[in-house]
Write a structure and sequence with these properties.
The complex is a heterodimer.
Chain A (H helix, E strand, L loop, with lengths): L3 E6 L2 E6 L4 E3 L4 E4 L6 H9 L7 H16 L3 E4 L15 H11 L3 E5 L13 E3 L2 E3 L2 E3 L8 E3 L4 E7 L2 E10 L3 E3 L10 E2 L3 H6 L5 E4 L5 E4 L4
Helix pairs in contact in A: 2-3
Chain B lengths: L6 H10 L5 H8 L5 E5 L6 H15 L7 E4 L3 H17 L6 E4 L5 H9 L4 E4 L1 H8 L4 H5 L4 E4 L2 H4 L3 H16 L4 E6 L5 H8 L7 E4 L7 E4 L17 H10 L2 E5 L3 H14 L6 E4 L5 H12 L5 E4 L12 E7 L5 H8 L11 E5 L3 H15 L13 H14 L4 H8 L10 H13 L13 E3 L5 E3 L4 H7 L9 E6 L6 E6 H5 L6 E4 L2 E9 L2 E6 L19 H11 L9 H13 L8 E8 L2 E7 L4 H17 L4 E6 L4 E5 L6 H4 L2 H9 L6 H14 L20 H11 L4 H11 L5 H11 L3 E5 L17 E2 L3 H18 L1 H4 L6
Parallel strand pairs in B: 1-6, 1-7, 2-4, 2-5, 3-4, 5-6, 8-13, 9-11, 9-12, 10-11, 12-13, 16-20, 21-25
Antiparallel strand pairs in B: 14-15, 16-17, 18-19, 19-20, 21-22, 22-24, 23-24, 23-26
Classes of the chains: A alpha/beta, B alpha/beta.
Chain lengths: 220, 809
């Protein structure tokens, strides 16, 4: 129980933070996945459903507090940063300003995701994937030594007759998959086939929330 | 015979050798009244009374198009009336069509009905709301003369009724002379139902049929004493079986599906004569329910174990006994259930009560007395819920552009919306148009837009399809189907998603009277295998719990003030007398609090008699206060009568603990994060159209699930706490599951008069509370601690804790 769980991936010492961001302290890299900014706007545009339009500001505020706490040199957004390419236009001036403030004075990398497969309006590098030291950062897991997102993993822990389900990191010796950071995001349970196939025996889940809880990846 | 009936009808009555009842003729005489409420016990031709004026009209002059609309809360009832009305109509020589239109009607049939409507259409509130959403509604309903609302007393207690009244307000604009006839069982306050169903402020004529003979109702004589606690009533099974053997057909009512399942299971274990006994409740598959209903009609069953699913519905003439298992909680429901026995006018219904525990013995005796006194419980009717209004506004927009001034006037003709302010109405329109958020974000994608003449219309007409898909106020979104494993496995019924989430493979539970083993979840279906003979590991799925009504609680409290209790079994009066001796008996005008040490801990018992839901809420609020006061509360348990809190430190200041002002603050702030609020929110959000039915819930499928409505609630709480849906949720919670209104009522009747008995040990009334199931652990830091312990255990058991790298300092 702490606000971060440290593990090693191909020699890189990484911290899975309770907030859902990954912190590579030695390289001062903060990595975050699946922000889904502009989700409420896209829902309204595509289906007429008008959910509370506060999730973009909420997501940015939580990211800002991590950036203030850690002062990273590099911020990597692992894809699906925007709910779609049009959603990147939907940020209101205050939200955009918040994003610009966070970008100031550091390197900012947008990795493309399936929701945002092209450059967005905001400054920073737009890449399909990014290598740094022994690791590669991309949206969807495919090889080894990689940091990815996309699946929105969550894990369930039975407690007596109750079951507590929270977004989680999943890692084994080969890869780490980040939880979705966006406020309006659901999750895929760790016992789903896609995640079962990706993660090797001995994989670990790190539950996020107020504090971290570490457990063997639940496999159903 | 009377001259108010045309010849075709009088002839029909004479052919049958029948006489119209007085109340049937009164309805005929009241044909000019804009609204008319018929109150009559079951089995005295109430339905025919509702249809007589229309049959008379149609006999006198043919009518093209829709003449009469009949609305019932049950699809089955609509189908049944269709069968039962076609015969008489034919015999009277009427050339009319009588058809039903419900969720079960085919699309072809529905299309045909809109082009060429029958003279009499039988439908449900949801199907009617859907009809009013089409642009041809004006044409379809233009000739409508009358609407007959069946079981209006039941509808008046649910949002389905509110939706119906808003739909009728829309119809009344199309056909101003439309007459409303409501059919109701006996109720405490007929005027209230009349106000509910009339077109406000027009009058409603009330016709009351004479009451039938007094029912033959008593406690079931059982040899064994009632157990101290619990709700199963297993001790009564031998006597219940005996009653089944001695009667034609017995309905055995239970308050919850879970209790019905357990009782049914135990009944069959002792059913040595193999009496044909079946089970019927709302979670069973439709096929299974229909099989049971058909067997019942065919007279093949000797008993049915059932729940509220049979409170309303078809008349089964051969039921000659009703057994109510568990305290009835509500006198009105009890009377209704008693009426299910013997559907022949002027013969008494027979019913027996089976209390499940000792407090329920007291409650059953109080209920018997209330039935004899005709003292039914009635909750005052509050203002109409605004989530239903939001849905109505969207439905109106589907039918065509509307002017807000017109719609406001129209809505306020529905009794429960008569006091709706223009500001409240406008906030609902704003919600439908833009989401109604403090942050104006949806100007571009708004759902409704205003035209130059001030009318509102759908921005994108295709949105109508989505609105129609979500019509209705019944909440059934979070159920999962249960099916036998294997190809073509039989459907058994449904369980709540929350219950399914607690299952692990190998768990066994009861459904449809059989023990099944949980195998897994596949394609949103719970797969099970048979596991005969084994004791179910998990009691069964959860369900609605009724709270004992205010009137009944009051009667119990008054009963305690008697000198002795000759109407109770000896062991019961001894128990009550002992409580009087050791402590005090609870009173209506004073609040009794007991505290005493027990097993190294301290128990505090508040005898609130405010119903289970309110006392559960009180338990949550008081445990928070005890935590603040440093009493280290551990858990609490609530029943309909009392809440008991366990703590590490003794309670000294009972008056401080129960000070009203702080309790209200607690409700506003701390309770806001409670799961009950989130559940209420989800219901309101679906009805109001914020989220769609298929958007809610956390489903495990191949893709990332959609996010849960809890996140929306948390977001609104944080950024827009006064949003209209949050207001609606709070209003809802004050009644329903949180039931804070009854805590207020309890505080008001005691008005600070509090007796705090500090005892050396447990009191006779407190003893059963220690045996109650469903103790609630006090939340907070506890959850994180438990989670930490469990995850550490899992890491250790797997050996992974040795591999994981410890943080480098």
């Amino acid at each position: 129980m702490s606000d971060g769980h440290v593990f090693s991936l191909f020699g890189a010492e990484l911290t899975a933070r309770a907030s859902g961001v990954l912190w590579w302290a030695h390289r001062r890299i903060l990595c975050v996945s699946d922000l889904h900014l502009g989700k409420s706007d896209r829902l309204a545009r595509r289906s007429g459903i008008m959910v509370p339009p506060y999730e973009t500001a909420d997501t940015l505020l939580r990211l800002q507090s991590e950036i203030e706490a850690l002062a990273p040199q590099i911020v990597i957004c692992l894809g699906d940063s925007f709910d779609d390419l049009q959603a990147s236009d939907s940020l209101d001036p205050a939200e955009s300003a918040c994003l610009y403030r966070m970008q100031a004075g550091r390197q900012w990398i947008w990795i493309e995701g399936n929701h945002d497969p092209g450059p967005v309006e905001f400054s920073g590098a737009h890449l399909a994937e990014y290598r740094h030291g022994p690791l590669v950062f991309r949206h969807i897991a495919e090889t080894e030594a990689e940091v990815s997102g996309h699946y929105h993993p969550k894990a369930a822990v039975p407690l007596g007759r109750r079951r507590i389900t929270r977004p989680c990191f999943l890692y084994d010796q080969h890869r780490v998959i980040l939880p979705a950071f966006g406020t309006f995001t659901g999750g895929l349970r760790s016992d789903a086939t896609a995640l079962q196939d990706l993660m090797r025996p001995g994989a670990v889940a790190v539950l996020t929330g107020q504090t971290c809880h570490v457990l063997p990846m639940p496999r159903g | 015979m009377s001259d108010v009936l045309p010849a075709a009808l009088t002839d029909w009555f004479s052919q049958k050798g029948w006489q119209p009842h007085a109340h049937q003729l009164h309805v005929m005489e009241a044909r000019a009244c804009p609204a008319c409420l018929v109150i009559a016990p079951t089995g005295c031709g109430k339905t025919l009374a509702g249809f007589l004026p229309s049959l008379a009209d149609l006999a006198l002059s043919p009518h093209t198009g829709l003449h009469t609309l009949y609305v019932s809360p049950l699809k089955a009832l609509a189908a049944d009336i269709k069968r039962n009305l076609r015969g008489p109509a034919e015999e009277m020589g009427l050339d009319i069509r009588i058809e039903d239109r419900t969720g079960d009607t085919s699309a072809t049939q529905k299309r045909r009905q809109r082009v060429n409507p029958p003279q009499i259409l039988l439908t449900t509130p949801e199907s009617l709301a859907l009809l009013t959403s089409y642009s041809d509604a004006e044409h379809l309903f233009s000739g409508l003369k009358r609407v007959v609302i069946d079981e209006v007393h039941a509808l008046s207690e649910s949002k389905r009724g509110d939706q119906l009244m808003l739909s009728l307000a829309a119809l009344q604009r199309i056909c101003p002379d439309m007459q409303r006839i409501g059919l109701s069982a006996t109720v405490q306050d007929p005027d209230q139902i009349a106000r509910f169903m009339a077109c406000h402020p027009m009058p409603c004529h009330i016709i009351e049929a004479p009451q039938g003979p007094l029912p033959d109702i008593a406690m079931l004589q059982i040899d064994a004493p009632a157990p101290w606690s619990g709700g199963g009533a297993g001790y009564a099974i031998p006597q219940v079986l005996q009653e089944v053997a001695q009667h034609n057909t017995v309905l055995i009512f239970h308050n919850t599906r879970a209790q019905a399942e357990i009782f049914f299971h135990k009944l069959w274990q002792l059913n040595e004569d193999n009496l044909p006994i079946a089970i019927h409740h709302g979670s069973l598959s439709r096929a299974q329910r229909e099989r049971v209903e058909a067997a019942m009609v065919a007279g093949a069953l000797r008993a049915i174990v059932c729940t509220g699913s049979l409170d309303l519905g078809l008349d089964w003439g051969n039921v000659d006994l009703v057994i109510q298992v568990g305290a009835p909680k509500n006198v009105k429901r009890l009377v209704q259930r008693i009426g299910r026995a013997n559907h022949r006018y002027n013969s008494p219904s027979k019913a027996r009560l089976v209390p499940a525990n000792r407090f329920e013995v007291v409650e059953c005796v109080a209920a018997l007395q209330a039935v004899r006194d005709h003292d039914l419980d009635g909750e005052p009717m509050g203002p109409g819920p605004r989530d239903v209004l939001c849905q109505h506004i969207l439905i109106a927009a589907c039918a065509g552009p509307f002017h807000p001034d017109d719609l406001y006037v129209q809505v306020t003709t529905a009794g429960r919306y008569a006091q709706l302010t223009r500001a409240e109405f406008d906030s609902c329109v704003d919600f439908c148009a833009t989401g109604g958020y403090a942050l104006k974000a949806y100007d571009r994608w708004r759902r409704l837009q205003q035209t130059e003449d001030g009318k509102w219309q759908l921005r994108d007409p295709r949105a109508a399809q989505r609105v129609r898909m979500n019509i209705g106020t019944i909440q059934d979104s979070d159920r999962l189907k249960v099916r036998m494993r294997g190809r073509g496995g039989r459907a058994l019924g449904e369980v709540e998603e929350a219950f399914a989430a607690t299952l692990v493979p190998g768990d066994s539970f009861l459904i449809g009277g059989q023990v099944v083993r949980y195998e897994g979840l596949r394609d949103l279906t719970v797969e099970v295998t048979k596991q005969p003979g084994k004791k179910p590991k998990i009691a069964t799925f959860s369900g609605t719990k009724f709270a004992t009504s205010t009137q009944l609680s009051q009667r119990i409290l008054v009963g305690f003030q008697q000198k002795d209790w000759p109407e109770l079994p000896g062991y019961m009066s001894d128990w009550i007398a002992l409580q009087r001796h050791v402590s005090l008996l609870p009173r209506a005008d004073r609040l009794l609090v007991e505290s005493f040490p027990h097993d190294g801990r301290f128990a505090s018992v508040v005898y609130g008699f405010a119903g289970r839901n309110a006392l559960q809420t009180l338990g949550l609020l008081l445990s928070k206060r005890m935590e603040d006061a440093g009493l280290d509360p551990l858990s609490f348990v609530a029943t309909d009568y009392a809440v008991m809190l366990l703590s590490l430190e003794p309670l000294r200041d009972a008056a401080g603990l129960l000070a009203p002002a702080g309790l209200r603050d607690g409700l506003e702030t701390w309770l806001a994060g409670n799961a009950v609020m989130k559940r209420s929110f989800r219901g309101c959000a679906v009805i109001a159209g914020l989220i769609e039915r298929n958007m809610t819930g956390q489903r495990k499928s191949g893709r990332q699930a959609t996010f849960s409505s809890d996140i929306l609630y948390d977001t609104l709480l944080k950024y827009d706490p006064d949003h209209v849906l949050m207001q609606i949720t709070r209003e809802e919670a004050r009644k329903g599951l949180v039931d804070f209104d009854r805590i207020e009522e309890m505080l008001a009747r005691c008005a600070g008069r509090l007796d705090h008995k500090e005892l050396e040990g447990l009191s006779p009334f407190a003893a059963p509370l220690f045996l109650e199931m469903g103790r609630v652990p006090v939340q907070g830091a506890a959850e994180e601690r438990l989670l930490a312990a469990e995850t550490a255990r899992l890491m250790e058991a797997s050996g992974l804790n040795k591999i994981v790298i410890a943080p480098v300092r």
